[in-house]
């Protein structure tokens, strides 16, 4: 059996030189293929002969004749070199048209309302054998569920990522006010007094009524009255159609609600903080062809959806 010291003497360059010599049976032609001078190839062959304790090639006329030892090890060396070549060969370009399987995306419900429908429609056009799976996701569990393989990426307001994740900025989510003009006889633009005195409906999965809006109002010396809190944005339009109240929501879903339910939009009468919407995905998926194509598709679709709804923000393509 070959000992460790002998193995350490044999590197990839020596194996490649052996393989080319087996094919060419000529030092000059082999050296040309390897982009080496003949002295360099001769030195490599000498090292390989010493390591294997065999002549390996014997000169016959102007060519080389492999020894029985060389012939016996040649198939294994060829298999090893072929395996290395396959491993480092560039990946084939992902073909969505022929691919069959699932694409999985995690989003909170306000972003899902704005983007999931257009994303599903576009995916059906480009990858008819694929299926889009939407996963309800909140920022507090997005990283854990990403590591568990629940979805390919998450779109939300994420916390600082782990070193094995990538958090790519998408857009800054601004707030907009929405109400039913038939229920609430207010005309835009709203005054701060009108905004503070009218009844408010909030959205909170956990039932919280205090938000950054209350902190902003406190700085002006005002307070608001929250009369109802719903756990999902999908319930909000029906609530606003049923009572004289106003809600302050992310602009992307607010514009969708206004178009679908005939609600009125207006700018908040005070400065409110923006939320940075980001895409969170695993670092190991950064160069994967399928995953990269899906991320880029989402960005293209989301940009078109934002533009069509009237939002003034856009997503840089480099985010994918």
UniProtKB/TrEMBL annotation:
Keywords (A to Z) from UniProt: Activator, DNA-binding, Nodulation, Transcription, Transcription regulation
Q: Which Gene Ontology terms cover its molecular function?
A: DNA binding; DNA-binding transcription factor activity
Keyword Transcription regulation appears in the UniProt entry: yes
Q: Where is the HTH lysR-type domain?
A: 10-67
Ubl conjugation: is it a keyword of this entry? Answer: no
- Which Pfam families does the entry mention? HTH_1, LysR_substrate
* Protein name as catalogued: LysR family transcriptional regulator
């Amino acid at each position: 059996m070959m000992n460790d010291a002998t193995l350490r003497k044999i590197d990839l360059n020596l194996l490649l030189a052996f393989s080319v010599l087996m094919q060419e049976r000529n030092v000059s032609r082999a050296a040309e293929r390897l982009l080496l001078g003949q002295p360099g190839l001769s030195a490599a062959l000498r090292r390989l002969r010493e390591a294997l304790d065999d002549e390996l090639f014997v000169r016959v006329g102007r060519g080389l004749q492999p020894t029985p030892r060389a012939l016996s090890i040649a198939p294994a060396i060829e298999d090893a070199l072929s395996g290395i070549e396959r491993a480092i060969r560039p990946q084939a370009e992902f073909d969505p048209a022929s691919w069959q399987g699932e694409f999985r995306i995690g989003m909170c419900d306000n972003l899902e309302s704005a983007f999931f429908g257009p994303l599903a429609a576009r995916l059906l056009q480009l990858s008819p054998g694929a299926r889009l799976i939407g996963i309800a996701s909140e920022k507090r569990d997005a990283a854990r569920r990403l590591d568990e393989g629940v979805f390919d990426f998450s779109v939300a307001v994420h916390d600082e990522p782990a070193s094995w994740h990538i958090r790519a900025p998408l857009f800054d989510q601004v707030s907009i006010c929405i109400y039913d003009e038939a229920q609430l006889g207010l005309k835009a633009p709203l005054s701060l007094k009108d905004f503070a005195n009218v009844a408010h409906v909030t959205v909170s999965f956990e039932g919280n009524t205090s938000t950054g809006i209350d902190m902003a109002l406190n700085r002006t010396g005002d307070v608001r009255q929250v009369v109802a809190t719903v756990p999902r944005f999908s319930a909000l339009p029906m609530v606003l159609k049923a009572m004289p109240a106003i809600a302050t929501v992310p602009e992307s879903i607010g514009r969708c609600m206004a178009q679908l339910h005939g609600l009125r939009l207006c700018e908040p009468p005070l400065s409110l903080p923006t939320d940075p919407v980001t895409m969170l995905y695993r670092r190991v998926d950064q160069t994967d062809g399928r995953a990269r194509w899906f991320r880029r598709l989402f960005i293209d679709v989301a940009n078109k959806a934002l533009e069509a709804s009237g939002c003034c923000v856009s997503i840089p393509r480099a985010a994918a």
